[in-house]
Records
---
Amino acid sequence: MQADTVFIQQLKCESVIGVFDWEKQIRQALYLDLEMSWDIQPAASSDDYRQALCYDTVSKAVVELVEGAPHELIETVAEKVAELIRSRFSVNWVQVTVHKPGAVANTTTLGVRIARGHRAG
């Protein structure tokens, strides 16, 4: 397998996220950056959509997961998203960055970044 990367940046999810009581009463924006190891050569050489990792399908699955249940920690969100992508889409390696803008005063954003699996190449 090649060391190709399929990526999705700044995928917006509206979620109940946080540890404080007031956070459990509202939906807040999280932005996710996803990088996934995927051999794009079969899709590129055949120009066949069925050989590609579908950005739209991955995006919809991630949004459904993140928005579907409340979480206290962005660390939990990152782990669940990585697990979903690796299991449902047969991705060997994924990097997930979860941004929570406005969570701390005087910052544009903060977040966590995890990588799971083994990257080819």
---
Amino acid sequence: MAQTTVEGVEGVLAKVGQHLGHSDWVEITQEQVDMFAEATHDHQWIHVDVERAKRESPFGGPIAHGYLTLSLVSALSGQIIEATGFRMGVNYGADKIRFMSPVPVGARVRASATLDEAKQFEGGVQMNLGITMEIEDQSKPAMVASILFRRYL
């Protein structure tokens, strides 16, 4: 269940500037990283070669792809905000994405979201969520991003 529920366009607009909550913590596994590498054809050794990453990488072991971290935003943001009164919603894009820290395999991450902006358009509303992907027990986030979602009436 989402931490914040809003009803319709007016409910969305009323939350602009507010922190909406946090998702649950999610562990990043080597299996996830390997499956992401298969799906994206990105088999760089710092992600998929565990022994080499332990020996040669500056991170001490394999790390998640930055885009794997980004791809979790859709699922994790659903734990944070639920917008009711709409027939559908879509991911609309991103205005800014920065990968601030590597996510070691085995680490846990969670999303934190703020509704930075909302714009009504004919037939719905566009939400700009400020998303921070936190790494458990680390002060520097894995990622900060400005993610756009649209909800249609």
---
Amino acid sequence: MRLKILVPAGLFLDRPVDKILAESTQGGFCLLPKHIDMASALAPGILTYVAGGEPHHLALNGGVLVKKGDAVRISSRAAVAGGLGELEAQVLRMQNEAAKAENSARKAVAKLEAGFVRTLIKVETA
């Protein structure tokens, strides 16, 4: 299989691999060369791929994985390569950032809803 990982800055990784272990929002899974074509939303976490018999680890800030034929493409907001010990801290940081962004988005939506309701009340009482 050929694994390509894309981040906003460009191409992060492009190499042949034998096996991919990833974590979707529904749970972990493994891709081998004859696996059926698929698409999956990835949860923030550690992706492991095996190339030349050696495992390699990456921290991904969520994203989308698409496998079609021998091509596996991953698009993510951020990716960091390293050892498992180092990557655990990176994953925790990515999860905290995602939680803060989600909280901020919820506050913005709540403000919009409140403004809409106030405007609706003004229109109905006028």
---
Amino acid sequence: MARAAGEERVTWMDGWWAYAFIAIAGWLATDIWRWLGVLAGNRLRDDSEALNWVRAVATALVAAVIAKLILYPTGVLAQSPLWLRLGSVVIGAIVFFAARQKPAAGIATAIAALAAGLWWGGFDDLKH
């Protein structure tokens, strides 16, 4: 790429402090909560109401994200039909339960079903 006269080339080393700031700020913002969670979690019993509540909230958040991706997708996923997105999740759920509730099996199957449906359905224009 041609540069205009007098324009200097900028490398990532010129702005290293920005990357360091992002890394440190990201670490500080999240790591302290992880450590507090470890400290608090060590004092909870596995069958406590507090831990059951945390599990329920975490499960609800994951379900909400999945529902949003299925019903209100963005980007390339928005170009796929609703029936394909729903069908992929159903197939993934069936495999999840058939494989003794192994998340990797269900997720991989749902992704493979979505990819196969897009390929079989001729959604080649998704590449553009």
